[in-house]
Structure formats: structure tokens, C-alpha cells
User: Which sequence fits this backbone?
């Protein structure tokens, strides 16, 4: 029994039209014109050439190669011959049983959900222990590289001797006897937004808009305590690790070269993570304020006023905003018989006018 | 007396052969979906095997003279390639860079700075070197009728060329772009070998200049206009609504118009490179137009970006289809005379370039 096929021997690009025989000793490939033996392949050595797509019904082809002759290719189109080979060649006999279509799809969907969930969870818990492992000197180096350009781009650092002194007084009061991973620094930047943030290495930046908005030094003390808590809890390093990890994960899963849309997803996920950190920082800020004998009413007032402001401006839903809903931020009622104002009046005035 | 006639064969047009591409979205879709699931389950490690599977499909559906191309690379090779880059190149470079920083801060600023600059130059050279080596890997894993190719030449020489033109081009106000393009592409093409036959390329930058200069002049006018309109904006002196509108319009025109404009140059570059390229007895024509190039690249950009890169294989499919439509191979070749390529095949994949699978090499 013979069948027709085409053959390339892997030594030249010549394409031979061949006859294929299947005696017991092995597959015989002979030139159809002169009957010359071109190759003899032992059945156990024959391998199918893997294809990613199913063979189309119309062109039922089988491509074979041989372990001892890996560059050679035999292409068969004869259905009868293919069937005969399937019985003889061990590598072709194993027909994979395919999953029923519905089950394959269900497994796929479960797989996607499970994979996404695993990734989300890993990015949720892994950065925290990793942040503890990160050498402090790395974080300090990272922060010192970021602080200067950021302050300049926002409008520059404000500096008056009296304002500086007031800031240091407040900082010392809040950090006295508190274990912090780095000696913190605070700076006021001339920007109109009501905001403050902690950079790596314990560098805290207050925006001037926040000082103007605050009604008392107690309110500023709360904001400072909140940022100091981020530093103490090493949230900053955690966030840096999470961002880098997220960027890598999105890049690895999608393999997208532009990174454009991936960045948006990363941004949304990042925010939902950080709300937990904000709640933690609020809780610790309460302790810092209490230890420093600063009234929690400053925190209460500030948080409530921000809520009003947000409801006027049409605030974002909590999922999109990177701070917890204001109702969750009101401090617990605590009796503070020894509370003193965060700063004397003249010092508070000096701090408020540090940028003027 | 003898008369010489030109033989009819010589007068006739050389025979034209074409590539065909039979890939279908319907066939690619299950492959891509399966790959996506496995990528998620393996936190992305499957990426490399997914890439190999997609290439096997795209290559297998591309045929020439009745026989398909075959991708013989594996995911494991690509994975090892990435590991090699990270552990043998990126990490050591990072360590050396750390040491340089230490020296700068501990009284040896010149030595430390010198090392730092060397490390930075090495980092920047990784792209051209990676591109060149990726070409070698891909050619060595591309079979047609059992025959494969290779990329000769040296990746570091290509990187030197890349640096040379990277410095010259901005200083020449981008007027040397055709010279750069031809120099880089010719180095790649003239060192490409398929079977035992090298590719020859004789493209000249001079032929590109007429079209390039038109593009360059229009772009220069756009830049000047933008500066004239933008200056008062930046200085903050004029802020009428009309001015702002004009400014916005110009920005849009700039970022949409300039790439569109230069697609005309790009198409001409591809056509001329192809027309000046021969392999053994065969020569090439690529009939691509600027508009075809735009219709390929802009939808592809959105396909990739909006799917977070997951639909990249479909963008590659579109590219392969267009390539098969545009490329014509002229002449007749006795393929029995083309012998197997004997070059050492790289044992590992293309390193970082795999991640950026869309990068054109």
C-alpha cells in the first residue's frame, strides 16, 4: 500500500513528491519519479509537527518529522494513509480526549476569575511584609530624590524663621517618645490645594492651601499626625512596592507594550487599596494626638468640614476617592482633661503666614 | 551577418510569486482566550508559551509557493531568554550602578561618575542589541521547506550604528532621518541569511529625499506655527478664547498630522528597501501605500491599548495579512540548490524584546 505525499529533507529546500510505504521495519519515503529511497523513519521516532490551529476540514493535512532527522518534514494529505499511520506511530495514537465545550468555557471563566482574584490578593498582602524588609536607607534615598523636584513643581518650599520654628514645635510635640523608622521632616509648599502627603523616607509635605483652610493649629496637628502615621506604619514603602508590583503584573499578564490603558486599571486598583491604609493612619493619628495632649476636636472639625465641602462639590464615590468616606473618619469621643492648644496663638499665626 | 535579438524570455515580465496568509479571527480567538486564562492563573509566566503558540499559528497560516512557514521556537526558550537578561545583565548592571553611587558619595566622584555613565550607556544599548539578537533568534526559528535562516553581523556593531545616528539625527534637525533609516535597515537586511544564501540590499538614502523633504518642510511649518501660537500661551500674556481654541486645534493637528504625514515617508521607505533587496535569484516588490500603513497602525494601536494588550495577536494577524497582500516576489529560484543554514542557532530566546512583542524588528 502506498500513498502520495510531499517531503523536504532538511538539507536543501527542494520539495519532493514522494510515495510513502508503511512496512513493519519503518516508514519508507521514496521519490515518486525514480523510486529512490529518501528516508526511512522508525515508527517510534516519528513525531507530528505541532500546530496551534486545528486542521481545516477541507485540507486535512498531517505534517510529520523524525527525532533522528529533525529538519525533515513529510506532509501527508491522503486520508487513508493518515489513518494507517495513526495505528502504527505511537506519537499519533494518543488522541487527546477533549473536554466538552461547555465545561471548557466554564473552566476558562473560573480560571480567569480565580487568577485575577489571586493577583489582587497577592498585591494586597505582599507589599506590607516586603515594606518591612526594605532597607531604610533605600527608602531615604528614594525620598531624597523625589522631594526636591516635587516641591519645586508644586510652587516651591515656603520658609520664614518664625513659621519654621512653629512647624518644628508642632512636629516635636507629636513625635516626642514615638518610635519612627526615620527622623521625619516637614515642609510647606506654596500650592493652593487643600492636601498633604508623605513621601518615602519620612518626608512630609503640607500644601499652603491646607494651612489657609485650617481654622486652628489643632486641625493642622491632626493632618500632620495623619501623615506621620503613614510614615510610622511604613505605608509609603508599601505603596511604592505595590505600584511597582502592579505595574509589573499588568505588564506581565497583558504583555502590552504601550502601557496606556494598563495604567488606568492600575490607578483604580491602587486607590481602593489605599483607603485601608488611610483608615489605619486615622486610627494612629488619634493616638499621636492623645499622647501629645492635643484636642481631638481639631480632627473632628476638620473632617466634618471636608465632608460639607465634598457634598457641595459633588464628591466622588468612596471607591474612586482615595480617602475613606468622611463618616468613617470622625474620631471616637474621648475625654481629654489635659489638652492644650497645639500651638500658641503667635506661633499659629506665623505658621499660617509662612508663604505670604 | 548576424543579428542579435533580445530573446522573448528577457522581454517578458519576471514571474510573480506571492505569500498567502490564511489566518482567521475565528481560529485565533480560542487560542487567545485559552492563553489569557493560563496567563492569569500563572501570574503572567505563561506569557512566553502563549507567545510561542500564537507565533506557531501565524507562521503556519503563512504560505509561500504552496508550503507554509513553520515557527519552531518554544515558550521555554523565550522564558530562559528573559531570565538570562534579568539575571546576567540587568541585575549585575544594577549592582555596578549601586557601587558607582557609593563611590560618588564616598570621595571618588570621577571614578563613580564614569562608571555610572558607562552603565547608563549600556542600559540604553540594550534596546538595539536586543532587537538585533531577537532577529537572529526569530530567523533561526523560522522554517520554510525545512530550511531556516540566521542573522549574521554583530549586535554591538548595530548598537554602535544606532548610537551614531541617534546623536547625529537631532543635531541635523532631523534632516538625516533617511540616512539613518537606510543605514540601520541595510545593516540588518544585508546580514540576513536564509538557507545558505545571504540577502543583498542596495537601497540608497538619496532616492528617499524628495519625498522626505516635503514631509520635513510641512512638519517644520507645523512646528513654527505651534511655537508662534504657543508662546503667548506659555508666557500667559494672551488668553482669548479664540487663541485657546487655535492652540488646541494645533496640538491635535500636530499629534495626529505629523504621524500621518510621515506615514507617507514610511511607506516610501518600505517600498524602496524592498525594491533594492534581492535573495539568491529572487527580488522583491512591496506595494504598500501610506494609507494602507495608516489603516494598519492606527486600528492596531487601539486594538492593543483598549484590550490591555490581550488582543495583540489580532493586531499581528492584521499585519501578517497586509504583508501577504503587499509583498510580491519576482523571479524564479531553483530551491533544490538552496542548502540548509549551518549557523549555530541561539539556544535561548529574545530576552526583554519578548515582553514588548509588538516591537517592530
Assistant:
Amino acid at each position: 500500500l502506498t500513498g502520495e505525499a510531499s517531503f523536504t529533507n532538511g538539507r536543501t529546500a527542494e520539495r519532493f513528491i514522494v510515495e510513502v510505504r508503511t512496512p513493519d521495519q519503518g516508514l519508507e519515503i521514496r521519490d515518486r519519479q525514480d523510486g529512490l529511497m529518501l528516508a526511512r523513519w522508525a515508527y517510534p521516532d516519528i513525531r507530528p509537527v505541532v500546530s496551534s490551529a486545528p486542521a481545516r476540514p477541507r485540507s486535512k493535512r498531517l505534517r510529520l518529522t523524525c527525532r533522528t532527522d529533525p529538519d525533515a518534514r513529510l506532509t501527508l494529505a491522503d486520508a487513508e494513509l493518515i489513518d494507517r499511520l495513526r495505528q502504527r506511530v505511537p506519537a499519533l495514537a494518543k488522541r487527546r480526549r477533549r473536554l466538552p465545550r461547555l465545561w471548557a468555557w466554564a473552566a476558562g471563566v473560573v480560571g480567569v476569575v480565580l487568577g485575577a482574584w489571586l493577583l489582587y490578593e497577592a498585591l494586597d498582602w505582599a507589599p506590607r511584609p516586603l515594606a518591612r524588609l526594605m532597607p531604610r536607607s533605600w527608602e531615604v534615598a528614594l525620598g531624597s530624590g523625589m522631594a526636591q523636584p516635587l516641591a519645586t513643581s508644586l510652587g516651591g518650599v515656603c520658609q520664614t524663621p518664625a513659621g519654621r520654628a512653629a512647624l518644628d514645635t508642632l512636629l516635636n510635640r507629636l513625635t516626642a517618645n514615638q518610635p519612627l523608622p526615620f527622623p521625619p521632616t516637614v515642609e510647606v509648599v506654596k500650592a493652593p490645594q487643600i492636601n498633604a502627603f508623605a513621601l518615602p523616607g519620612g518626608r512630609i509635605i503640607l500644601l499652603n492651601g491646607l494651612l489657609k483652610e485650617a481654622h486652628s493649629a489643632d486641625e493642622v496637628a491632626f493632618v500632620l499626625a495623619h501623615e506621620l502615621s503613614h510614615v510610622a506604619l511604613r505605608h509609603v514603602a508599601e505603596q511604592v512596592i505595590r505600584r511597582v508590583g502592579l505595574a509589573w503584573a499588568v505588564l506581565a499578564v497583558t504583555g502590552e507594550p504601550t502601557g496606556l490603558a494598563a495604567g488606568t486599571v492600575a490607578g483604580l486598583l491602587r486607590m481602593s487599596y489605599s483607603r485601608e491604609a488611610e483608615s489605619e493612619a486615622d486610627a494612629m493619628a488619634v493616638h499621636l494626638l492623645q499622647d501629645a495632649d492635643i484636642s481631638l476636636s481639631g480632627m473632628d472639625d476638620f473632617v466634618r468640614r471636608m465632608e460639607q465641602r465634598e457634598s457641595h462639590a459633588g464628591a466622588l464615590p468612596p471607591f474612586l476617592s482615595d480617602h475613606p468616606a468622611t463618616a468613617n473618619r470622625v474620631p471616637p469621643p474621648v475625654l481629654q482633661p489635659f489638652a492644650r492648644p497645639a500651638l500658641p496663638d503667635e506661633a499659629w499665626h506665623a505658621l499660617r503666614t509662612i508663604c505670604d | 551577418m548576424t543579428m542579435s535579438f533580445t530573446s522573448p524570455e528577457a522581454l517578458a515580465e519576471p514571474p510573480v510569486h506571492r505569500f498567502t496568509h490564511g489566518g482567521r479571527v475565528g481560529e485565533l480567538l480560542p487560542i487567545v482566550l485559552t492563553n489569557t486564562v493560563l496567563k492569569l492563573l500563572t501570574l503572567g509566566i505563561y506569557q512566553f508559551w502563549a507567545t510561542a503558540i500564537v507565533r506557531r499559528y501565524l507562521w503556519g497560516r503563512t504560505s509561500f509557493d504552496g508550503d507554509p512557514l513553520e515557527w519552531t521556537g518554544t515558550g521555554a526558550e523565550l522564558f530562559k531568554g528573559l531570565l538570562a537578561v534579568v539575571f546576567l545583565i540587568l541585575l549585575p548592571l544594577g549592582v555596578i550602578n549601586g557601587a558607582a553611587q557609593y563611590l560618588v558619595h564616598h570621595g571618588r566622584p570621577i571614578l563613580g561618575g564614569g562608571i555610572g555613565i558607562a552603565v547608563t550607556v549600556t542600559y540604553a544599548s540594550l534596546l538595539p542589541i536586543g532587537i538585533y539578537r531577537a532577529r537572529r533568534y526569530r530567523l533561526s526559528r523560522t522554517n520554510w521547506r525545512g530550511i531556516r535562516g540566521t542573522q549574521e553581523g554583530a549586535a554591538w556593531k548595530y548598537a554602535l550604528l544606532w548610537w551614531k545616528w541617534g546623536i547625529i539625527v537631532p543635531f541635523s534637525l532631523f534632516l538625516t532621518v533617511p540616512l539613518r533609516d537606510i543605514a540601520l535597515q541595510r545593516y540588518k537586511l544585508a546580514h540576513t541569511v536564509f538557507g545558505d544564501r545571504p540577502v543583498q540590499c542596495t537601497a540608497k538614502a538619496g532616492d528617499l529625499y524628495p519625498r522626505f523633504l516635503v514631509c520635513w518642510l510641512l512638519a517644520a511649518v507645523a512646528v513654527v506655527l505651534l511655537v508662534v501660537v504657543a508662546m503667548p500661551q506659555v508666557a500667559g500674556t494672551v488668553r482669548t478664547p479664540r487663541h485657546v481654541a487655535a492652540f488646541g486645534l494645533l496640538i491635535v493637528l500636530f499629534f495626529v498630522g505629523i504621524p500621518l504625514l510621515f506615514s507617507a515617508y514610511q511607506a516610501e521607505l518600505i517600498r524602496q528597501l524592498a525594491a533594492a533587496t534581492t535573495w539568491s535569484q529572487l527580488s522583491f516588490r512591496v506595494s504598500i501605500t501610506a494609507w494602507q500603513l495608516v489603516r494598519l497602525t492606527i486600528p492596531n494601536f487601539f486594538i492593543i491599548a483598549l484590550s490591555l494588550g490581550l488582543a495583540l495577536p489580532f493586531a499581528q494577524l492584521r499585519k501578517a495579512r497586509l504583508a501577504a497582500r503587499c509583498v510580491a516576489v519576482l523571479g524564479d529560484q531553483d530551491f533544490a540548490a538552496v542548502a540548509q543554514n549551518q549557523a549555530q542557532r541561539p539556544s535561548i530566546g529574545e530576552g526583554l524584546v519578548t515582553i514588548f512583542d509588538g516591537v517592530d524588528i
Notes: Chain A touches chain B at residues 6, 8-15, 49-54, 71-73, 75, 107-108, 111-112, 114-116, 118-119, 122, 249-258, 260-262, 265 (CB under 8 Å). The longest strand of chain A covers residues 69-76.
